[in-house]
Amino acid sequence: MGKRILRTKLCDMLGIEYPILSAGMGPTLIGENTGAPVDLVVAVSEAGGMGVLGGSGYTVDELRDAIREIKARTDKPYGVDLLLPANIVEVPEGAAAGPQEIPLSQALEFMPQEHKDWLKKIKAEMGLPDVELMVQMNTTTMRPKESIRVCIEEKVPLFCAGLGNPGFMVEEAHSVGMKVLGVTGNAKNARRMANSHVDIIVAQGHEGGGHTGRIGTMALLPMAIDAASPKPVLAAGGIGDGRGIAAALAMGCAGVWIGTRFLATNEGGALDINKRKILSSTDEDTRVSRAYTGKTLRASYNKFHDLWDSSGLGPVPFPMQVIISSALISGFIKAGKDDYVGGLAGQISGLIKEIKPAGQLLVELVEETVDILSRRLPSDVIAK
After folding, report:
1. φ and ψ at 5, to 5 degrees?
2. I need a labelling partner for 375 at 20 to 30 A (CA). Which of 51, 96, 113, 170 fits?
3. Taking CA 41 as the corner, what is the angle to CA 37 and CA 42, rounded to the nearest 5 degrees?
4. CATH of the domain at 247
5. Is 369 helix (H, G, I), strand (E, B) or coil?
């Protein structure tokens, strides 16, 4: 059988062979460049899709280095995903005179007293060891403007905002030939992004891993497509095989944005323990919580969710909540308390039973999709 063909207008817009993008997933813990690293980006792009770098785990300098490594390893189009939430605690530009990194124990001193007391209590009760991570003060999440400038200077083919509306940067991005993508969880924001001239909109349903909204994918997609028209909409949330891709295309999407399935590949940057949790999951084994980042985020269920829920505490602003969760989770990992550990993952985890190379996965996804779209309806379905 010859090479399969699966094209939409998205392929022409981005210069790719297949309308499949790997989501720009970020890390779970401070100090971990996990999620969608360079290896995953290159593998997906080389196979004909578009790999997207999860840039939220990098310092500004590391982001530039990662982009240049991608360009050195492939001449195919790629993307970079950054987080641009509205209420971020941002380090001001020009603050370079201060420390570029501080110990985790020092960063925790800036937390509210009740959060510090709770952390101390949990560590003592559970016998957690001290883990001295270094907290970078020049990460892309703390310096979003500088990070955007890096992407523009490096002329990244596709800039993706995993959180927030990137409409403010569209004009400058277009001036250097960049396309801009925004991720939304409701139709209202899909319309808002379209009106701000964002090129591509990802509509992610509640099923998706990582930061997620309240509306299911099947309900969200047609409303987002109508709201964003004529901008192309990509489907995300609960898509992990050709059946999901075919359904999204049949509904009118221009392509798909796939996270969890690509996370569970050889090149996916998830910790081994998190990959094992995905493989062992059912469709009910993920949970939405604010414990990790302070925003609603879906991850593989583990006892950390219950621990946080029982604390009675509210989350501190992003990304400061990440410091709290990293302090605990790193201790759980070092103490071997695996039932308190679980990474970002969507409800599609229940469908994933094997870790395989990302390039092989992309080819299989295309073959499954084409087979479904090109065959006749089942014999018990009548349509005229």
Report:
1. -115, 125
2. 51
3. 120
4. 3.20.20.70
5. helix
Burial 117-148 (b: 16+ CB within 10 A, else e): ebbeebbeeeebeebebebbbbbbbbbbebbb
Going residue by residue through the chain, which has 384 residues, state the pLDDT in tens, using 9 for 90 and above: 578 899 999 999 999 999 999 999 987 666 566 678 999 999 999 999 999 999 988 989 999 999 999 999 999 999 999 988 665 555 555 545 456 788 888 888 889 999 999 999 999 999 999 887 778 777 888 889 999 999 999 999 999 999 889 999 999 999 999 999 999 999 999 999 999 999 999 999 999 999 999 999 999 999 999 999 999 999 999 999 999 999 999 999 999 999 999 999 999 999 999 999 999 999 999 999 999 999 999 999 999 999 999 999 999 987 789 889 999 999 999 999 999 999 999 999 999 999 999 999 999 999 999 999 988 656 665 555
Residue 221 placed within a domain: yes
Instruction: Decide if 383 is inside a domain.
Output: no
Alpha-carbon distance of 298 to 343, in angstroms, equals 9
Nearest to 244 by CA among 224, 231, 260: 260
Q: How far is CA 269 from each of CA 34, 39, 56, rounded to the nearest angstrom?
A: 4, 9, 13
For residue 189, what are the domain limits? Answer: 9-374
For the chain, what is the radius of gyration of the CA atoms?
A: 20
Give the pairing type, strands 179-184 and 210-211: unpaired
Backbone angles phi and psi of 28, in degrees to 5: -90, -35
Which stretches within 302-357 are classed as H helix? 303-309, 320-334
- Pairing assessment for the beta strands 134-136 and 200-204 based on DSSP bridges: unpaired
Element (H, E) at 193: helix 187-195
Query: Is residue 382, in this structure, part of any structural domain at all?
Result: no
Domain count, the chain: 1
How many angstroms separate the CA atoms of 96 and 238, rounded? 42
State the CB neighbour count (10 A cutoff) for residue 196: 15
| Strands of the chain, DSSP E | 20-22, 51-54, 78-83, 101-103, 134-136, 158-163, 179-184, 200-204, 210-211, 233-236, 255-258, 286-289, 297-300
Q: Quick check: pTM over 0.70? A: yes
